[in-house]
Write a structure and sequence with these properties.
Length: 435
């Protein structure tokens, strides 16, 4: 498929106000929990990105009624014990969150199902989820003994486990907790580094009792969820692209409204502040489970920093765009403890380093991250997205400071998380595409 896009080099100021689309992690969970619950769930601000649409299509095949009207979604469900056994495979597309969380839910359901995803999903490790689920009694088979998709799940009665997480992963934690909802006994998950906690917050919203204390999460099995209303804030992982654009472009100011500011996701804010960026944060009053605010970023003089440890899970998806930010910071930025990047939609250490080097960045890969020296003037060229939305957007944002046009091949993958990304780029810049 030839869906490349060529962006004119654009070194002019960026100005404007944006409302980025809904949070991807929260949008997925709102559909999943609405489908598990009894009753009606209404969702506002839903992300109509390809990944979340994959989640919807899976639940429709399980017989759940889901109606979409703009970014409002209504789910009517009789609870997961009434899911219909699907006659078709459940296609999770490019979405790791859909695949892993579905495994947790389906394991304790009453149905047999088969999960498949795209080429990228077929390479992503599933053993990290299958192994604890099998400890709970799950009946899952798949390629290489359940390490990779396609995966077949025969729903069965599960038993609770006490599980210490070997990696910081909200997808693994959530899969276990969702299986735990249907298991006999109290499921315990222990995290040494805190990963995003949208599952815990939203389970409470749907009426479940769940406790979190010092990284130990406990959930009693057999709880019934009840339909509710979910307000989805803007995705800070999408806002991150415009935060970086505003910080690195000259004489710029970008205001981003209604952005989710859950502390397990705001590592990008910490990085910008530590680098000395000109960033203002207003936290809004909100009745939602998730904190929401407005971020205003202005052109900034940036200093290099070291990024590692507990900060990594709080910004794991932002590392590609942080690498671009670091090319404009004075000094040597070190990103470490981020091996997980190798098993995202693509190997993001290799992809980021390879593509930014093409633009003239001084960047080297390490075993667990990268080392970037700046500031460096970026040129232009033809970049690969590797079918990874965040690599594609990183390349597009580079064009706000590049001296030559930048072409992104397979740019349509950006619609996985940010379908109107180029419209938003056009609002804040004099961005033009060249053919
Ligand atoms: C997500 C968790 C993270 C993140 C992904 C979304 C989630 O993955 O990278 O984009 O919604 O739970 P891991 O759980 O693999 O760290």
């Amino acid at each position: 498929m030839n869906d490349s896009i060529k962006l004119q080099a654009n070194q002019s100021p960026l100005q404007g106000s944006l409302r980025v689309p809904g949070d991807k992690s929260i949008s997925h969970r709102s559909i999943m929990f609405g489908a598990m619950a009894k009753g009606v769930t209404t969702i506002n601000g839903f992300l109509l990105g390809d990944d979340c649409l994959s989640t919807i299509s899976c639940f429709k095949k399980l017989g759940v009624d889901i109606q979409i009207s703009g970014t409002n979604v209504t789910i009517t469900s009789n609870g997961m014990e009434n899911w219909k056994e699907p006659i078709d495979i459940l296609d999770t597309g490019n979405s790791g969150t859909t695949t892993r969380l579905m495994l947790g839910m389906l394991a304790g359901s009453k149905v047999h199902s088969v999960l498949i995803g795209d080429e990228s999903i077929a390479k992503r490790p599933m053993k990290r989820v299958i192994q604890p689920l099998r400890q709970m009694g799950a009946l899952i088979s798949g390629r290489s003994d359940g390490q990779f998709t396609p995966l077949a799940v025969q729903g069965t009665q599960l038993s609770a486990i006490d599980y210490t997480m070997p990696v910081a992963s909200a997808q693994v934690k959530s899969a276990i907790l969702l299986a735990g909802l249907r298991a006999k006994g109290v499921t315990t998950v222990r995290e040494s580094e805190v990963s995003r906690d949208h599952t815990e917050r939203m389970l409470r919203q749907f009426g479940a009792e769940i406790t979190t204390e010092k990284g130990v999460i406990k959930l009693q099995g057999g709880q019934q969820l009840t339909g509710t209303h979910v307000e989805v804030p803007g995705d800070i992982s999408s806002a991150a692209f415009f935060l970086v654009a505003g910080a690195i472009a000259t004489e710029s100011s970008i205001r981003l409204e209604h952005v989710g500011l859950n502390p397990t996701r705001t590592g990008i804010v910490d990085v910008l502040q530590q680098m000395g960026a000109n960033l203002e944060i207003e936290v809004n009053d909100s009745e939602s489970e998730e904190p929401i605010g407005t971020l205003t970023i202005k052109s900034s003089k940036l200093n290099a920093i070291e990024i590692g440890g507990e900060l990594i899970p709080r910004l794991i998806d932002e590392i590609p765009i942080i690498a671009l930010l670091a090319t404009q910071a004075h000094g040597t930025t070190v990103i470490k403890d981020a091996e997980e990047l190798k098993v995202k939609e693509t190997d993001r250490i290799a992809a980021v380093v390879h593509e930014l080097k093409k633009l003239g960045a001084d960047i080297e890969a390490t075993d667990d991250g990268m080392i970037i020296k700046g500031p460096v003037t970026l040129s232009g060229g033809k970049l690969q997205s590797y079918g990874d939305h965040r690599i594609g957007m990183m390349g597009a944002i580079a064009s706000v400071i590049s001296t030559q046009p930048i072409e992104i091949e397979h740019a349509s993958c950006i619609s996985v998380s940010y379908p109107n990304f180029f419209d938003h780029l056009r609002i804040v810049s004099s961005f033009e595409t060249l053919r």
